[in-house]
Amino acid sequence: MSSFIVLSVIILSLVQVASADNRPVIIGYSVGGVVASIILILDLIAIFELLQSSGRGVCSKLIWILIIFFFPIGGLILYCCCARHRTVDQVIV
Prior knowledge:
Distance between the termini: 18 Å
Membrane topology: Multi-pass membrane protein
Pfam families: PLDc_N
Protein name: Cardiolipin synthase N-terminal domain-containing protein
Subcellular location: Cell membrane
Keywords: Cell membrane, Membrane, Signal, Transmembrane, Transmembrane helix
């Protein structure tokens, strides 16, 4: 979870630096590539975490992997809010 927070802070910092001089934010190839790489890394972390989690059936894992694969940003947000929350509660109890 801390890696998600650190990477979101980095993304927000990049956007603030790009818009610091009150000009419109134009995301170039390098910034877009960095953001895409961060999203890819977060998706891979979520998929590996999902594969290592216990208490889920194969069908449930496959559905979550497909959601994350076809909707990288939305799937990651859904996984962090819905599916990951339940596994964290199981670890605490």
